[in-house]
Amino acid sequence: MLPEVAWHISTKSDAGSGNCVEAGPLCDATGRVAVRHSHHPDGPALVYEAANWRAFLAGIRSGRFG
Fold it and tell me: Which 8-state DSSP code applies to residue 61?
């Protein structure tokens, strides 16, 4: 069970295509971030350590993932 998460839907989410992602920081002072499919809020979520999440975001911003 996850601690409370301040979920935010991605601005790139597209309900028509089914690509709907929410991410948010865990409210437990660890800096970890959870990611889930917004159509399945009670389903599984991936949890990333803060450093890994920052590296992922940096890769997106640099165009690494096309």
Answer: H
